[in-house]
Design brief:
The protein has one helix and five strands; from the N terminus they run E-E-H-E-E-E. The protein is α+β, with helices and mostly antiparallel strands.
Length: about 70
């Protein structure tokens, strides 16, 4: 399954951009519904432990920026 890029925003203004599969994003959204402490997510860059009580938004990030022309 292909990974997409999402941004996770935290209270205080910090934002982390990660690449995750759709299934992993769905798992994260379900965990946020419970928002009961810490949740480990697996990204293409490694594992991240999130304090769910500090997450204020998830955003699907735009595609990667490319320089040049499309054919």
């Amino acid at each position: 399954m292909a990974a997409g890029r999402i941004e996770i925003g935290f209270s205080g203004g910090q934002v982390v951009a990660v690449r995750m599969t759709d299934d992993k994003v769905k798992d994260l959204r379900q965990a946020l519904d419970r928002a009961d402490g810490w949740f480990d997510i697996q990204t293409e860059d490694g594992e991240i432990a999130l304090d769910l009580r500090q997450v204020v938004f998830l955003r699907g990030a735009p595609g990667e920026h490319r320089i040049g022309f499309t054919g």
